[in-house]
Amino acid sequence: MPRPVNSSAKVEPRRSDHDVDLVVIGGGVNGTGVARDASMRGLRVALIERNDLAFGASGNNSGLIHGGPRYMLNDPNVTATSCRDSGYIQRIAPHMLHRVPFLMPVENKGRAKIMFALIDAFFEAYDRYQPLKRGKKHALLTAEEMQQLEPGLRGNIVGGISFDEWGIDGARLCAANAVDAGERGARILVGCTVERIERREDTGEVVAVHYRDRRKGGTGKLRTGTVINATGAWAPITASLGRIAPTRARVRPGKGIHIVYDRRLLNYAVAAQTIDDRQIFVAPWQNMTIVGTTDDDFYGDLDEVRATSEEVRYLVQGVARVFPQIHTARAIGTYAGVRPTLYAYGPHEDRLSREHQIIDHAAHDAPGVYSMIGGKLASYRIFAEEMTDVLAARFDIGARCATHERPLPGGDKPVDAIELAARMEIDPVAARRLVFRHGSRSLHIAERVQERPREAATVCACEPVTEAEVRHVVRTEWARSVSDVARRTRLGMGACGGMRCAARCGQIVAQELDLPPREGLQQAARFLARQAQTRAVALGPEQAQQEALAIAAVRAELGVDVRDLDEGEAA
Fold first, then answer.
1. For residue 328, with 0-12 CB atoms within 10 Å meaning exposed, 13-18 middle and 19 or more buried, which class applies?
2. Residues 158, 116: contact at Cβ < 8 Å?
3. Which terminus in the chain has less CB density within 10 A, N or C?
4. pLDDT at 72
5. How far apart are CA 446 and CA 425, in angstroms?
């Protein structure tokens, strides 16, 4: 596995002239993972995130904690570490995980029987990794058995393979790591953009990190000697803030998009192939179905990554060859993220390595600055452990990693959803979703409801989300807007697209943050506009007409139109 080229000199932790021992820049899964691990080992940590926790790839991925069988041939270490970390994540956050069984059809063409045997042998090798992630071994299935398991399958197939993976909500994983770090003393600064990494002119050592609050407009400074650049696809930009050449933290950004459908269309995830022979899938995911994913080089604005109608058609075409029902299903949105893949010139996008790398910029005359490049959601914890091991050596502390043993917030004990529903006097489905998102921390939300029974009211019926949960994530998980609440609770992510709940959520956020009521309505309008933009590329003519009427009605009801907002309010 790639290691730092050079090692920064050892430094003294808890220096009186430093506000914190290290500043982590980036609130994705790698950044929050390092913040948690470093805090657990006794270091003083600050985490700065420009937008929101899980704003980038960590909150806009396939939601799979999987080994990735396709990586076995070129990146076997990626498969091994991903499977091992999947097992650890199941141990520390059992409430977040759900099993995702896959079916892989084998087309009856050419040397189909030989191909079938080769695929069987390939998955026998993958079976060796299954114990690491508590997965089931693969099974060889006939065409008839495939049809029995998933009646919606079509096409001329000789049979297929079943194999086992796990799903997780990446945004919830980021929030849990940040909460744990915060409860251990870390400073979590969300909505703050780093403007400069100050370094000494003579030695190049880090002196401080200067930042600006994007919402309030104020500025701040954190004195420190160590900075972790965990900004994913933004890594070259962040490096340049410390007078480090962007090429020293180079990535090859790869755009991946997903299409979201309004219900579970099938019981198994089904692998498919696109017209250019890339592997894609359709999968049940939480209350919905997703189709993914593209893998294309991206050169645009990293803060405005969206799916296009061409990308949607590309995915639907591939899935329809094995699951034609997708043509009649109702798409309710799309989402997109950019992978911070290790840079390589020449290989096709989907053949780039998913390995990760720690760059010690002491080799570039910037001691104390590190960049975390590459990686996968499935192996975030081990990447964070490796980075924190480097920090432990730098600060000469002997504390070992325990993030694979100690549960994340909510993962310490199981909660009976039926009992919780009776206690809160809410629907059992609402209680089950609450437990899935918060684990044992759902009991804290139940305590709010017992003290304030009116907070049991449902704000979002699609997910569903209660008023108490909205207030909880604003108070304890750094949510500052309707979009932030949606990222943590999935409010407005269902079939209605937020049209029935965004306004009420905006009111609650404004109350909790002591904002003017109009700001809550503006937040709701911005959220609805963005949701409409993600849906537009996946809609047919009839659904688009219905969409336009619905949006017009909601705008009239709110009395606020995002077209009336100036750039400062919309930022």
1. exposed
2. yes
3. C
4. 74
5. 10
Q: Which contacts (CB < 8 Å, 24+ apart) does range 410-414 have?
A: 410/93, 410/95, 410/96, 410/176, 410/438, 410/439, 410/440, 410/441, 410/442, 411/92, 411/93, 411/94, 411/95, 411/96, 411/176, 411/439, 411/440, 412/439, 412/440, 413/440, 414/94, 414/95, 414/440
Enumerate the β-bridge partners of residue 140: 161
Distances (CA, A) of 127 to 121, 337, 468: 10, 30, 43
Contact 530, 483 (CB under 8 A): yes
How many CB atoms are closer than 10 A to CB 306? 17
- Dist. CA 47–CA 35, nearest whole Å: 7
pLDDT in tens, 226-251: 999 999 999 999 999 999 999 999 99
- CB proximity list for 533: less than 8 A, separation 6 or greater: 306
Tokens describing residue 504 = 């009420």
Structure tokens at 172: 């919830």
The pair of three-digit structure tokens given for residue 437, joined into one six-digit string:
């998102």
Q: How far is CA 168 from the centre of its chain?
A: 9
DSSP 151-211: TT--S-EEEEEEEEEEE--HHHHHHHHHHHHHHTT-EEEETEEEEEEEE-TTT--EEEEEE
Token pair for 318? 């591939």
Summarize pLDDT for 185-234 with one digit per residue, the tens.
Answer: 999 999 999 999 999 999 999 999 999 999 889 999 999 999 999 999 99
Choose among 305, 308, 317: nearest CA to 276: 317
Task: For residues 169 and 493, give the distance between their C-alpha atoms in angstroms, rounded to a whole number.
Answer: 13
Contact between 355 and 386 (Cβ < 8 Å): no
Which residues sit opposite 113 in a β-bridge? none
Confidence band for 553, pLDDT divided at 50, 70 and 90: confident
Q: How confident is the model at residue 77 (pLDDT cuts 50, 70, 90)?
A: confident
pLDDT given at position 347:
86
For residue 88 the two structure tokens come to 């650890």
Measured in degrees and rounded to the nearest 5, phi and psi for residue 49 equal: -125, 125
Closest CA to 269 of 171, 152, 180, 184: 152
Structure token digits, residue 474: 């604003």
Count how many residues are written for the chain. 571
For residue 6, pLDDT over 60 is answered with no
> Distance (Å, rounded) from C-alpha 149 to C-alpha 39?
46
In sequence order, which ranges of 396-501 are alpha helices (DSSP H)? 417-424, 428-438, 442-451, 467-476, 482-489
CA dihedral (499, 503, 509, 510) in degrees, to 10, reads 150
Which amino acid makes up residue 131? P
Q: Please report the sign of the dihedral spanned by the C-alpha atoms of residue 494, residue 495, residue 499, residue 501.
A: negative
Residue 568 has pLDDT above 90, yes or no: no
pLDDT, one tens digit per residue, over 120-171 is 998 998 999 888 888 899 999 999 999 999 999 998 899 999 999 999 999 9
The distance from CA 176 to its chain's CA centroid, rounded to whole angstroms, is 12
Q: What is the pLDDT of residue 368?
A: 97
